[in-house]
Structure formats: C-alpha cells, structure tokens
Amino acid sequence: MSVKCVVWDLDGTLWDGIAVEQTTETLPAPRAAVLALIDELAARGVLSSIASRTDPSILGLLLADEPLAERFVAPQADWQDKSVALRRISAELGIGLAALAFVDDNPFERAEVAAALPEVLVLAPEQAAGLLDSPELDPAALTPEARGRVRRYREDARRKDAETAFTGSRAEFLRWCGMRLTLRPATAADVPRLVELARRTHRMNTTGEVPPVPDVLARLTDPDGWFLPVAELSDRFGGYGLIGAAVIEKDAAVWRVRLLALSCRVAGRGVAPAFLRWVMDRALAEGARELHVPVRPTGANVELRVLFRQCGLRVTGPQPAELAILGRRLDQGGLPDYPEYLELETEA
User: Fold this and answer.
1) Can you say how many angstroms the Cα of residue 192 is from the centroid of all Cα atoms in its chain?
2) How far is Cα 79 from Cα 76, in angstroms, rounded to an integer?
3) Which of 156, 198, 254, 313 has a Cα at 20 to 30 A from 95?
4) CA 215 to CA 204: how far, in whole Å?
C-alpha cells in the first residue's frame, strides 16, 4: 500500500530543540527543509500529521499558528506512546496503518512504533525526502483528486465537526449536507483516476486488481461490449471529486462487474447502493436479466460484501478459486432504493 499520510515528531524533527523548554510562550522555529518537504508532499496528495510525546499545551500553540497548523490533519500531542497516537490518526482519517509513514529523530521512539505497528513505515528524518521518489508521487501522473487530497481531508474535518454539533438524525444530517451524486459513463480523461481508485481502495473494492490503462481505454471504445460508469459527489462543504468507478462486461443476458471501486471516504453516505442501483437500471434498460459481481473476499472489504447482500446479491453458480461470484435477477423487482437524501444527477 502506498503512503497516504506522513506523521511527524516535533522536537528534534520538525524543529530544533525542545518546545517545553522555551522561555516564552512560543514554539521553536520549524526547519525550513521539513516545511518544504511537507508542502511538496501535500502538492502530491500526501497528508501530514503529528505524533509528539510532549505537554498537550504545545499542540495548542501549534494550532494557534495558522500557517503551521494548516499543514497538519488530526495532530496528536500528549504523553502516550507514539504507537497509540498513530492508531488514533489512522482511525480519525479513516486510512489503514499500512498507509502511514512515521518520522522521528529518536531511535527509541522509532523502535517502539516498529515493534507495536510493523505495518507502519518508520523513518529517520534524513530518510523522509526519499518518499518523493515513489513512482506513485510523480507529479506528471497525479490526478486532480490526488492534488486536492489535503484540502478534502480538511473539508472532512469540518463535516465531522458539523455532524457532532447536529441535533437531528443521521439521515437528517445527510440531507442537510445537500449531497449531489453525479452518475455518468466514464470518458478518457477519467481513466487515470479510475486506475488510481482500483489501486488505492481496499474497503470498497471487489477484487483489488488494477487494470492497465491501455486496457481501460480500449474498453471505452467498445460500448457494445463494455460499460464503464463513474460517480462524483459534492455537498455544502465542497467536492469529493470522482469517488467511484466500475468496469462492466456486457452480453445480452448478463452484465458482469469486473471491477467496482469506491473511495472509503464516502462510506455510509448511500453512494454505493445508489451507484449499484443505477448500474442495475442501465442493465435492465439494455435488456440484461442478471447482474454478476465477482468478489475476492478479504478482511478489508467485508463492508462491501454486506452491502451487496443488502442489495439482493447472493452466491451463484460455479465458484472459481479465490473468488465469490455474487449475482441477482434484475427483472423480478425488489431492486435497492435510491437513498432519499441524495440528489441524483445522471447522464446517458
């Protein structure tokens, strides 16, 4: 899994010296090279956070420094072990521990995290710049969604704060958010993001297979044999970007979903059942009677498999190794409802 968030220590890593030993209510000056690296990572879609074993008042000083605070999401500063902070960051951001990198100048702290969380990439400060060498962070290959990832996580933080303060039900809150879901066929411009979704998603991914770009482009030019739908979402807080995609093989009677990938950031918002229902409607409109979805069961995609069951899909037919073929009839009614709090916009 690629790194989605870099978690930085403070004393001796983000800045020289120890913040609690300052003689005034100020922070040490951050290292210019570290700030430049954080900004470059953000430009390439990688978040930054903080895990520091220090007096919690230091976090208050950092958050009061707007140019510094805006660089970090879900920062943690207290006397707990760094591994505890990393678990909190992972949970708050909704990303796996394997998508975190941890940077600390202290060998003891690095060893504690490495022992407690072996899936986390642990780095000394002088190693951090090597993160930019990842092929996935090549600026020429970045999608608009990747470039805007830091901004969207900040929007997510505002959504969570608003939901905490909201006094109505979950459905009422989602309706208040004014969510607009756009469902449409993919274009050639969507292909890099479609492949990115296939590579980066795990909770809401049917097989984990990443289709080569040339194969996806070839299927776009064969509308009689393939259908490639995508989904975009926005609300009063901002745009999520392109958050869902599928690659579907068509024949006269059966549509087979070779790939379905949805961003985990939209889980629980009704996007997945709406997307699936739209695909079912399209299949019916073109005369198909069944929808089949091959799924590779993993510990990560349990939520998606539960969703399929709620939408009436059941294990059907001979089962190949490592895959479960889920399916349902489309011409006998009982299709899943579109969530009433979603405003739908569809394109032929």
Assistant:
1) 16
2) 10
3) 313
4) 22
Distance CA 199, CA 208 (A): 7
Residues 304 and 275 sit within 8 Å (Cβ to Cβ): no
Confidence band of 96 (pLDDT split at 50, 70, 90): confident
Structure tokens of 272? 């997945």
Burial of 317 (0-12, 13-18, 19+ CB in 10 A): exposed
End-to-end CA distance of the chain: 35
Are the beta carbons of 7 and 103 closer than 8 angstroms?
yes
Asked if residues 14 and 6 have their Cβ atoms less than 8 Å apart, the reply is no
Query: 3-class SS at 149?
Result: helix
Helix (H) or strand (E) holding 154: helix 149-165
How many other C-beta atoms lie within 10 A of the C-beta of residue 157? 15
* Cβ atoms of 270 and 342 closer than 8 Å: yes
Dihedral pair phi/psi, residue 195, rounded to 5° = -65, -40
pLDDT digits (tens, 9 = 90+) for 15-49: 999 999 987 888 999 999 999 999 999 988 899 99
Cβ count within 10 A of residue 15: 18
CA–CA gap between residue 173 and residue 171 (Å, rounded): 5
* Angle in degrees, CA 199, 201, 203, rounded to 5: 145
Can you give the pTM of this predicted structure? 0.78
